[in-house]
Amino acid sequence: MCLGIPGRIVEISDSSANLAVVEIAGVRRPVNIAFILVDGRAPDSYVGEWVLVHVGFAMSRLDEAEAERTLALLSELGELQKEMAAMGGAAS
Fold first, then answer.
1. Model pTM greater than 0.85?
2. DSSP single-letter state for residue 69
């Protein structure tokens, strides 16, 4: 299964290569933001925005409320997997 994970753009590391630093659950990683750029808008203007990250690319922008809901659901899924493992089952 492939998931997109919400993260917040914290800086633009290389605007000519469309690279940003995105913070996901306290971890910062480089992400390509080419898919979310809008003509006429400077890459620096995206700092602070939430994006859905999949395999190193920001696939779409989302609002903070949706990002928080998604992160909460992913956290719940992680807890469910832990409970299933403790019961001897496999959550996949």
1. no
2. H
Measured distance CA(4)–CA(49) in Å, rounded? 16
Q: What CATH number matches the domain at 5-86, 2.30.30.140, 3.40.50.300, 3.40.190.10, 1.20.1050.10?
A: 2.30.30.140
> Cβ distance 72 to 65 under 8 Å?
no
Nearest-CA neighbor of 33 among 5, 72, 24, 47? 47
- Which has the minimum average pLDDT: 16-20, 72-76, 87-91? 87-91
Between 79 and 32, residue with greater pLDDT? 32
- Which residues 6+ apart lie within 8 Å of 2 measured at CB? 54, 55
| Tokens 């990250």 sit on residue | 53
Residues 87-92: contacts with CB under 8 Å, at least 24 apart: 92/1
